Amino acid sequence: MRFHEMIGLPVYDIETGKRVGKVLDLMLNDEWVLQGILLERKHLFSSTKIVLWQDIVAYGEDAVMISNQQAIHKQDADNINLTFLTGKEKLKELSVLTEDGIMIGHVSDVYFDQKKGNTITGIEISDGFFADLMEGRKMLPLLPGMSMGENVIMVPSLSEQRLETPMNYSDG
Which SUPFAM superfamilies does the record associate with it (predicted)? Predict the structure, then answer.
């Protein structure tokens, strides 16, 4: 599954069947592990609501199910470090650079394996609009030695040779 497929999904309390919000973004840690989801705010100045990954009972192409409404926590947005789309440190559009100075592209999406829960398996790389049209986007599997920096994702030398054509999870 890709992060973009999860963003926008409705979130339901499995105890009551009540819709409690919609996925706005996903939170990660520095070890490339999903920590939870951020829910859409009802008002511009309302606090950020999060659900930690361990409180997510199930998720699929149509919805995210949480254990109960007690799983929703208020969080100061300044205390949320790494997110995909909206945080002060966001992964989307971050440049991907090899240790030997070769720009591979920019992060356009993140893949994770539903069977493994919150394990990130790779990042989708865009090399620009025209390259995406001509060649398509590529997926870089999560590699030992990949690290998120302030301005770039650093990957080992020769990582551009590990780029793959991503599977289209929506079609299958």
Answer: PRC-barrel domain (SSF50346)
User: What is the pLDDT, as a whole number, of residue 165?
Assistant: 82
pTM over 0.85: no
Cα separation, 26 vs 53, whole angstroms:
10
Contact 137, 125 (CB under 8 A): yes
Classified as helix, coil or strand, 166 is coil
Phi, psi of 167, rounded to the nearest 5 degrees: -75, 140
User: How many other C-beta atoms can be found within 10 angstroms of the C-beta atom of residue 149?
Assistant: 11
* Residue 128 reports pLDDT greater than 90: no
Quote the CA–CA distance of 32 and 15 in Å, as a whole number: 30
Q: How many Å apart are CA 19 and CA 64, to the nearest integer?
A: 10
For residue 52, what are its two tokens?
């930690």
DSSP 31-56: TSBEEEEEEPPSSTTSPEEEEEGGGE
Do residues 93 and 40 touch, judged by C-beta distance below 8 A? no
* pLDDT attached to residue 155: 94
CA distances from 20 to 61, 86, 112, 162 (A): 17, 20, 24, 40
Structure confidence at residue 171 (pLDDT): 36
